[in-house]
Amino acid sequence: MQEIKPLLKTTIAEALNRLGVAELPEIIVQETPPGKEGDYGTPVAMGLARVLRKAPPLIATEIAERLTLPAWVRRTFVTGGYLNFELEPAFLAQTASQPLEPLTPQPGKVLLEHTSVNPNKELHVGHLRNICLGDSLARILRFAGREVEVMNYIDDTGRQAAESLYALEHFGLGDSEGDQKYDHFAGEAYVRLHQEMQDPEKKTTIEHGVQETLHRLERGELRGAVERILRAQLETMYRLGAEYDALVWESDIVREGLLEKAMQALEGTPYVHRPTEGKYAGAFVMDMSPFIPGLEDPYLVLIRSNGTSTYTAKDIALQFWKMGLLGGVKFKPYDTQPSGHALYSSAPEGQPMGFGAATETINVVDARQSHALRIVQASLEVEGRPDLAQHCFHLAYETVLLEGQQMSGRKGITVSVDEVLDEAVRRARAIIAEKNPEHPSPETAAEAIGVGAVRFAMIKSEAKKQIDFRYEQALSFEGDTGPYVQYAFARACSILRKAEEQGLGGEAPDFSQATAYELELAKVLLRFRETVQEAARAKAPHLLAQYLLDLAAAWNTYYNAKTPEGKPATVVLGAPEGLRGLRLGLVRSLQRTLQLGLGLVGLQAPEVM
């Protein structure tokens, strides 16, 4: 498949050189708006008006006179300050019908960390966006040619894990009862413990028990208990379609001495010291003022005066390991994921493997942690590696409401991801029973539609915007939803199935019969590659989600198009020979593009809805 816009940009750049433009501006090529002449246009003349001291229409005319046009450009013309291109219809239709080719491999490894939920209770709605954003971005980056390593960080030495494990012991709880998932069982104990801590006398006893549990976690005595909760959480992650390359346990980072090594590396810089007096006396402190100006208090404690490390210190050690400044973490096989992809876990008894040592890192963490992530990034500058700091990216996202309600795990005001998925699938099953009672596999389709609706709702909006998830909106077969895109795919599959049944699947296309209807659909199809590249560059999965909505809308417009007399204008199977082959080719291309795009945002593509 030829990439039309890059080829047009090259053609324009060559014309600008002939015009004598010494410093080329950014050359933008866009599709012309509906109802306007031409297929593509560029506003480059407007950006040159001040430099060349000429009116944009005159500059556009001079560029046009110096163009060496590819054979597939029918004509160029100037409209206002724009230079527009009209392409050969047959070329456009043929190009859009070609199979999608892989994007060029890019150098360097991206280490993408997402999910990283405390292993102490079930996942709730607040975790949904993190998982869906991270998993979708990993898929997009891989398709865009990047080597991607996906990591899930397990905070098994933190207070939350200690509280859940102590709660299970404190209340004399053993296994979960009945079919209850173990992470839900542990989560109930966690909430119950916090309720009991409202009593000051009980709080003292509980605090002592939690601290003892923390020490046991640090010694590695309770890893099996944490792992039991983690495996229950993984069931939910897998159901969402998320998979990982490696689990990295915080206890392994500490046990392998990475924290100590990171602190030693920082101690050799002029920005870290141990004050002997004042409020920081005896602590290990980093001065952030040269790297993050404007802080009210630029001093950051890494190691407290009592010798305990802060969360920030552990995060810095992890980041140093991610970018190859520290070694020593060993791994072993942990699980075979639903796709068959192997999952590895850090482990003291494991072997050195190729995880870490990335040239770029992406941390998917909610926007409330932006300052903490900026400190981790700045620690690389403190260490004298601004080159690595430039490639340390925080994908910050805003919170998720469920039907307008904010979540709080500690207060027990949560709705679990499992409950959300079950409810979405239940509603999808009811819609299928109403709209297609003869569906050949309703349960499979309901799972694909329900889970897909939840995933799509989590990524269709820009990450910096808050989401209020509402079932009725997310599960609609119309509007900006996952089921809307899935239904567009299923409709294409239906046409292609009928073509095969009628023996028309192999009909040769006659691209010279392309009409304006085909050209509009073709131009949207041709936007796929650049959209994926931009989503990868900007680390913005919502760009691809919005493209899929645009493509589904373009397909529905094409499918329902009418002639001026009110008759169907784009009949596929009943079209004349040659035009029918052309239209089947476009439908096939649409089917491939929708299936691939849905896969990149983590949705299944059911052939029957």
TrEMBL record:
Domain named Arginyl tRNA synthetase N-terminal is located at 2-87
UniProt-annotated location(s): Cytoplasm
**Annotated GO CC locations:** cytoplasm
- Short sequence motif named 'HIGH' region, residue ranges: 117-127
Chief subcellular location = cytoplasm
Q: Which UniProt keywords apply?
A: Aminoacyl-tRNA synthetase, ATP-binding, Cytoplasm, Ligase, Nucleotide-binding, Protein biosynthesis
InterPro entries per the UniProt record, alphabetical: aa-tRNA-synth_I_CS, Arg-tRNA-ligase, Arg-tRNA-synth_N, Arg-tRNA-synth_N_sf, ArgRS_core, DALR_anticod-bd, Rossmann-like_a/b/a_fold, tRNAsynth_Ia_anticodon-bd
Q: Which GO terms describe its biological process?
A: arginyl-tRNA aminoacylation
Q: Which domain of life is it from?
A: Bacteria
According to the entry, every stretch annotated as the DALR anticodon binding domain falls at 485-609
Indicate the enzyme's highest-level EC class: ligase
PROSITE patterns (UniProt xref):
AA_TRNA_LIGASE_I
Q: Does Nucleotide-binding show up as a keyword for this record?
A: yes
What does the record give under GO molecular function?
arginine-tRNA ligase activity; ATP binding
EC number, as in UniProt: 6.1.1.19
> Which reactions fall under this protein's catalytic activity?
tRNA(Arg) + L-arginine + ATP = L-arginyl-tRNA(Arg) + AMP + diphosphate
- Binding partners and assembly: Monomer.
PANTHER family listed in its UniProt record: ARGININE--TRNA LIGASE, CYTOPLASMIC, ARGINYL-TRNA SYNTHETASE
Give the record's family classification.
Belongs to the class-I aminoacyl-tRNA synthetase family.
- HAMAP family from the xrefs? Arg_tRNA_synth (MF_00123)
Official protein name in the record = Arginine--tRNA ligase
The organism that produces this protein has a lineage beginning with: Bacteria, Thermotogati, Deinococcota, Deinococci, Thermales
Gene, per the UniProt record: argS
